[in-house]
Structure formats: structure tokens, C-alpha cells
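Objective 1.3, modelling of assemblies. Example input:
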Amino acid sequence: MTVILKIGGSVLTEKNSEELARVDDIERISQEITSFKSESDSDIILIHGAGSFGHPQAMKYRLNEEFNAEGTYLTHTSVKKLNSMVLESLNNAGVHSLPVHPLNSCLLENGKIVYFQLELIKLMLNRGIMPVLHGDVVMDRVKGVSVLSGDRIIPYLAPLLRASRIGAGSNVDGVLNENGNVIKKITPHSFINMKKHIKGSSSTDVTGGMLGKVSELLEVANKGISSRIFNASRKGMVFGFLKGEETGTLIADK
Ligand SMILES: Nc1ncnc2c1ncn2[C@@H]1O[C@H](COP(=O)(O)OP(=O)(O)OP(=O)(O)O)[C@@H](O)[C@H]1O
Ligand SMILES: [Mg+2]
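Predicted structure (C-alpha cells):
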């Protein structure tokens, strides 16, 4: 089985600061992935968000609105720092992992992925290595550079890698309704009425927060692949999701 696991920058970092990692959570999640790997031969592609490594720089240089070379460099450099921490933690925990930086492996057109060097990912998986991707700034044929969220990578990779278990771990128990309760399931149909209750992020975020995430995962659902949004800040939840537990919010086509 192929699993795509996205862990939000809201879990791995202190999103209201600048470049502050939650080292304990990074270590805990590495351990949970190691535990799952020790009892399963599933392939995992890990994608992590940028959190306070990337969002503040991208916002400062208004990278969503205009091209800026310096801002691009600083945003990429920042998110790479977080990526290095995640990789060190994973490899120390015993999961062979290598980085795949979107800046160096894909190309965008108006923010949409038009090319991805997929063979890199496949070759790593063939050798038992977990590819670790992340939200990044990426060259864009139209805009020069665009911000590519970790969430947006999911609908592109899922069908091409034939992923059958997809999850986005964030810092909330799932998608919440107007009363703060977890919505068990969202479909393209039910989304029409729910949309008004789903917002951006409460912290510094240039990629649409929860609404952006749900939109990307609905795109996956439209391709007939369901996914889950769950709370990766809670102990044991990443392991549970990897094992197939029905946790958080299911995003499905019907
Ligand atoms: N209806 C909703 N249900 C749940 N969370 C919501 C809702 N509307 C808005 N949010 C906000 O969305 C946030 C999650 O999105 P956010 O982009 O901040 O996290 P992430 O994707 O995990 O992190 P990153 O973007 O750094 O990878 C929640 O912390 C919450 O503040
Ligand atoms: Mg986000």
C-alpha cells in the first residue's frame, strides 16, 4: 500500500513565532512513523508544511502577489531548515529518509503543478527510502515564482503514485462545524453548505488554512480517492491513522 501523509506546519512548529520548531512533536511523530514501519511494508511519502518556517517570509515579501527574488530565497532557505530537522529526527529514529525539495523537482503554471520529477520519488521508494517533501516556493512559468503548499502536492501525487491512504494531520481534531464539533464526512455535495464555516488559518498562513486544505482534498475525492484530516498534535494519532483508524474528518466523493 502507498500512503501519503501530510503533517502540518501547525504541528511541527509554533506558528505564531518565526522559525520556532516544536522539537518534541517532531521527535514523537518520527517515533510513530518508525513504529508503523516496523510492522508494515507500506510505502510512505511524507509531506510537511512550513509553519513558522516559510509562511512569515512569504507573507513579508508578498510572494502570493508579486515576484521577489530575495523573498524566494529566504522562504526556501527557511523551510529547508525545518526539513533538515525533520529528516534528522526521522533518520535518527531509524527511518531512512531523503529530502525532495519542490523548488528543485517541479514546475508550476499559475500556481498549478505542470511537472514533477516523479521518478526521484519512485526510485527512493524502491530502495526503501521515505521521500520527504514540503511546502515550498517553486518556479512558475507565468508568475515567476509561486508558493506551493504541502496540501496542494497531495492531489497531484495521489493518483500518479496510486496512493490508497491519504491523511493531512493538523492541529485540530478535524474540520469543525459552527458548534466546534468534528464534521465526520465532507463530500463535494455537502461542502456547498459547509463551506461558510471553514476558514483560513488563525496564524500566519499564505496557503488558505483549513479551507485551502479541504479544497485540495476534495480534488483528490473527485478522482475517487478518499482522505482524512486528523489531529497530529495528539499523541498516537499519526500511528493510528497509518494503521487505518477512522479518525477526524473523512473527505470522500460520496
Ligand atoms: N472549520 C474549521 N475547522 C478546523 N480548523 C479551522 C476551521 N476554519 C479555520 N480553521 C483553522 O485552520 C487551521 C489549520 O490550518 P493551517 O494551515 O494553520 O494548518 P496546517 O495546514 O496544519 O499548517 P501548515 O499550513 O503550516 O502546513 C486550524 O488551526 C484553525 O485555526
Ligand atoms: Mg496549511
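DSSP finds ten helices and twelve strands in the chain.
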